[in-house]
Amino acid sequence: MLPNDFPDDIKPFLAPSTGGDMGYDCLVCGARHAPDQLLYTCPACGGILLLTDKKLDRLKEKPGSFWRRLFDHRLMLNLPALKGVFTFHEFLAPNVPLSDVIYLGEGHTPVVKAPPALANLVGANFYVKMEGQNPSASFKDRGMAAALSMLNHLVRVKNLGQVIAVCASTGDTSASAALYASSLGKSVKSAVILPQGKVTPQQLSQPLGAGAAVFELPGVFDDSMKVVERLSEKYQVALLNSKNPWRVLGQESYAYEVAQRFDYSLRDKVLIVPVGNAGNITAILSGLLKFHRASVIDGLPKIVAVQSNRANPVFLYYRQPVAARSYSPVTVRPSVAQAAMIGDPVSFPRLADLSKAYEERAGVSSFFAVEVDETAIMEGMLQANRHGLSICTQGGECLAALRAALAEGLITPSETAVLDSTAHALKFMDFQNAYFEGRLAKEYGVATKPELANRPRSVDLGQAPIPGQGKTMTAAEREAFVSTAALAIAESLGLSEKA
Ligand code: F0G
């Protein structure tokens, strides 16, 4: 829609100018630091940082109905900077000028209602937000759009020259970081550090394709993360893990979009979120709280954090009585929800803080954690796929969590769950194939159900001529091949001939 065609009360607010009073807040010593620098830990005490807007209350000066109307109208505005996560500029990173925003097509992913047969199987209606439909095929693009937009801004205003951007990854952060960095040409060069053999071949191909420097290290993600932390402490680099708080701001857009998708009515909803490094769940809680404080939404949904029982430090923390909660990292074991296979989540202190704030506002039992096993995760992914929803293993983890939470009575069938399928299913197809070929049992402890497995069927062509590369068949040979193959397939499918 052309700007002039918008209603008069919306027009002046369509394209926001910069505002707010952003700063890094240290969660440990409480120090506040200026936002126009690259910080990943507090320079005063080394604590973890969150970015906050001291002028957030200015958003309350307008009624919630104003923001709802504005964000809904913005969806019709053809301004690239506001097409993605920056639709919610005022709540997200209001200090970033629109001219520095990077938009590669991220955000506004579909929210799809589970087909009735799947809802019946699970015992409740639910929706899935398809985060695999982001540019690098995972939700990480939301945070990366915010972090790289800010970096782009700093490179310009501070004349930084070429920046080396580094991250450790279970496969999706690296794919996203490499893609977004490559969009900036020479000004940002990305380097990714991956746990060898612990990212899928598809995920490994992504940063290679985007031209990043790719390093593989022995160990699991937690080991690679320590190396990246050392690099960011000792050398001039930009850190693109979710320790970078700009990433968290971008990922808040998931919460804003879910609110918008359900007409800002979240009271009876349950958001189920897979947790690895705990960046995503932190961002979702933070986004929901901001929208609630500004009355954009009038109720808060329940939040379910889900982990595999093979990588479950967050589950173990929340399952202790509130007064006795203490956090310990765990040693992870192989999990098909490999992208979330993290034993010592970097954002855990942020999560502990925000979940407390969330419970204070939304009430006790508005936030809880469940753990699921590998068999349930795989079955979640496969069952969804067999009912029209192509979801990743972490999406399968959410489906397993929905079932577990219903069984435990933590949620009821009258509530509506929204599952976060955080990445594209195709990134994790090796797990599906291993399941189908009966190879998952040993390392992952997955019990295979034969009725869920599927393999290509062979076609018995007998003595019929067969096509080959560079070989020209005669008409008779082709006819013999086609009729033999068609007959064999019809018999395999039990087809009856037309009358
Ligand atoms: N799902 C997918 C597909 C992921 O890639 C990740 C994390 C998670 C869930 C967990 O989200 O870390 O915010 O709690 N992947 C990171 C990476 C760690 O390196 O790609 P989280």
Describe the structure.
Helix content is 37%, strand content 13%. With 499 residues, the protein is an alpha/beta fold. It has three domains: 111-136 and 251-444, 3-Layer(aba) Sandwich (Rossmann fold); 140-245, 3-Layer(aba) Sandwich (Rossmann fold); 459-499, no CATH class. A six-stranded mixed β-sheet has the order 4-5-13-10-11-12, sandwiched between helices. A four-stranded parallel β-sheet has the order 8-7-6-9, with helices on both faces. Strands 2-1-3 form a three-stranded antiparallel β-sheet. The protein starts with 21 loop residues before the first strand and ends in a 6-residue tail after the last helix. The relative contact order is 0.11. It binds ligand F0G. Ligand F0G binds at residues 138, 140, 169-173, 242, 274-281, 339-340, 392, 394, 422-423.
Record the SSE blueprint.
Blueprint: E1 22-26, E2 32-33, E3 49-53, H1 64-74, H2 89-92, E4 111-113, H3 116-122, E5 126-130, H4 140-158, E6 163-168, H5 172-182, E7 188-195, H6 201-209, E8 213-217, H7 221-234, E9 238-239, H8 245-251, H9 253-261, E10 269-274, H10 279-293, E11 302-308, H11 313-318, H12 348-362, E12 367-372, H13 374-385, H14 393-408, E13 416-421, H15 429-436, H16 441-444, H17 475-493
Parallel strand pairs: 5-13, 6-7, 6-9, 7-8, 10-11, 10-13, 11-12
Antiparallel strand pairs: 1-2, 1-3, 4-5
The structure holds ligand F0G.
CATH level 3 topology of the largest domain: Rossmann fold
Number of helices: 17
Query: SSE order, as H and E?
Result: EEEHHEHEHEHEHEHEHHEHEHHEHHEHHH
Residue share in helices? Answer: 25-40%
Q: Count the strands?
A: 13
Task: List the ligand species.
Answer: ligand F0G
Structural class: alpha/beta
Number of separate domains: 3
In oligomeric terms, what are we looking at? Answer: single chain
- Tell me the overall shape: globular
How many whole angstroms does the radius of gyration measure?
A: 24 Å
Major sheet description: 6 strands, mixed
Provide the spatial order of strands within the biggest beta sheet.
Answer: 4-5-13-10-11-12
User: How much beta, percentage-wise?
Assistant: 5-15%
Mind telling me which CATH architecture of the largest domain this is? 3-Layer(aba) Sandwich
CATH class of the largest domain: Alpha Beta
